[in-house]
Write a structure and sequence with these properties.
Helix 4 crosses helix 5. The protein is 28% helix and 21% strand. With 368 residues, it is of the alpha+beta class.
Length: 368
C-alpha cells in the first residue's frame, strides 16, 4: 500500500491524467497556417482581385516602357539641398522639433510627372517636390507634394481605375479614350482635375511653382491641441507664365537649366503655408479642396542652396514616404495617403533589387 494513499480529508487522491501533445500540436499548426495565409495574402498570392501595393505598382509600370533603376512615377528630376527655418508661429501648430529649432537641414528632389526619365519638361503638366527634414532630435519629416491643388479621385480604388485607364491598348499603342471618358463620367473630381489641367497657368520655373500636400494630416502642439491641416510651399519667386508656343520652344531640360542659373545667384525660397480645417471639411478625401477662407499660418521658409543630378545626389537613396513623420504630426485616415505610402515602399524595394542586379550606372535611382 502506498504510504500516502489517502489525502488529509480521508479521500483517495484522483488518478493522474495522461497528458497528450495533440492539442498543442494542433494549436501550433493553426498559428503557422494563419501566418502562412497572412503572408500569402500580403504577397498577393491569394485574393488576386483585391487591390495591393504590388498590383498597383505592376499597373503603373505597364503604362509605359520600362526604365530599370528609375522611379516608376516622377522619373525625371534633380536632387536639391538646403535649410528650413521655422517661423515664430510654427510651434503653435505642432510640437515637432523641426518647428522649434533654428535651422533644419533639408534633402530633397524636384521632378516632373510621368515615367520617362528623359521626358521633355515642357510636356509635363505636373511638377513635384519631395523633401526630407531632419530635426536635431533625429526625427524625420518626409513629404511628397505636387503642383495640382487636389487629387483627381477620392479613393485608392478610383486611383487604380484611373491608372488602368492610362494603359495602352495593344491594338493602337495608346490609352483607350472610352475608359478615360467612363472615369470622368463617374467621378466629378476627375472632371474638375481635367479642367484645372487645361486652365491653370504653366510657370517657367520650378522655383515659382506652388506645391501642395493634397492629403490631410493632424498636427498636435505642446499643449495637446490637435488640428487637421494641409500645407503648401508658396514660392517667393514671382510667377512668370509660359503659353503653349513658348513651351514648344523650350529645351527638354529647361527646368534644370533654369534652376542652376538661379542657384548661381543665391538660394531659392518657398514659404510653408499651413491651412487649418474647420468642422465639416473633407479631412479624409484628397479630391475635395478646402475653402480658400480657411485660417492659414506661415510656418517657415524653405531655402534651397544647391543641386545635383539625381544619379549622383543623395536623394536617390530615399523613399519620400509621406507617412514618415516626427512626433507632433500624424497622417489622417485618408485611404489614398495610406495607399501612396504602401506603393512608395513597394516601388523602393523594386529599385533596390534592380540596383543589386546591376541596373546601368546612369539609371541608379531609387524609388520615390
Amino acid at each position: 500500500m502506498p504510504l500516502f494513499r489517502y489525502t488529509r480529508a480521508g479521500q483517495e487522491p484522483p488518478v493522474p491524467r495522461r497528458h497528450t501533445p495533440l492539442p498543442w500540436i494542433a494549436l501550433i499548426a493553426l498559428i503557422l497556417g494563419a501566418a502562412a495565409l497572412a503572408f500569402a495574402w500580403l504577397a498577393g498570392w491569394i485574393g488576386r482581385d483585391r487591390l495591393t501595393a504590388q498590383r498597383f505598382t505592376d499597373t503603373i509600370e505597364a503604362t509605359g516602357p520600362a526604365h530599370p533603376g528609375f522611379r516608376r512615377a516622377h522619373s525625371k528630376g534633380v536632387c536639391v539641398g538646403g535649410w528650413f527655418s521655422p517661423s515664430a508661429q510654427a510651434p503653435m501648430l505642432s510640437s515637432a522639433r523641426v518647428f522649434s529649432q533654428q535651422k533644419v537641414p533639408v534633402l530633397g528632389r524636384l521632378s516632373i510627372g510621368g515615367g520617362d526619365p528623359h521626358g521633355a519638361d515642357g510636356n509635363a503638366r505636373v511638377r513635384s517636390i519631395a523633401l526630407q527634414l531632419v530635426g536635431d532630435d533625429g526625427q524625420e519629416w518626409r513629404m511628397a507634394m505636387n503642383s495640382f491643388p487636389f487629387f483627381a479621385v477620392p479613393t485608392p480604388e478610383a486611383f487604380f481605375e484611373q491608372t488602368r485607364a492610362q494603359l495602352p491598348d495593344p491594338a493602337t499603342g495608346k490609352p483607350d479614350p472610352q475608359k478615360m471618358a467612363a472615369l470622368l463620367a463617374r467621378y466629378p473630381s476627375a472632371r474638375a482635375f481635367q479642367q484645372w489641367a487645361k486652365s491653370a497657368p504653366w510657370t517657367d520655373s520650378w522655383t515659382n511653382t506652388t506645391f501642395n500636400s493634397v492629403n490631410s494630416f493632424w498636427f498636435t502642439n505642446a499643449q495637446g491641441n490637435q488640428r487637421a491641416v494641409r500645407w503648401r510651399w508658396q514660392p517667393q519667386a514671382p510667377v512668370a507664365e509660359l503659353d503653349a508656343d513658348a513651351r514648344g520652344r523650350t529645351d527638354a531640360d529647361f527646368l534644370e537649366q533654369d534652376l542652376r542659373r538661379r542657384l548661381d545667384n543665391g538660394p531659392v525660397r518657398w514659404n510653408l503655408v499651413v491651412s487649418i480645417a474647420e468642422p465639416g471639411d473633407a479631412v479624409d478625401d484628397p479630391s475635395t479642396p478646402w475653402p480658400a477662407s480657411r485660417s492659414e499660418v506661415m510656418a517657415g521658409v524653405l531655402s534651397l542652396e544647391r543641386m545635383q543630378s539625381q544619379e549622383q545626389g543623395a536623394c536617390g537613396e530615399l523613399n519620400f514616404d509621406p507617412l514618415i513623420l516626427p512626433g507632433g504630426m500624424r497622417g489622417s485616415d485618408d485611404p489614398v495617403l495610406a495607399a501612396r505610402s504602401a506603393i512608395y515602399s513597394q516601388s523602393f524595394n523594386r529599385r533596390e533589387r534592380e540596383r543589386a542586379a546591376g541596373a546601368p550606372a546612369q539609371a541608379r535611382e531609387t524609388a520615390r
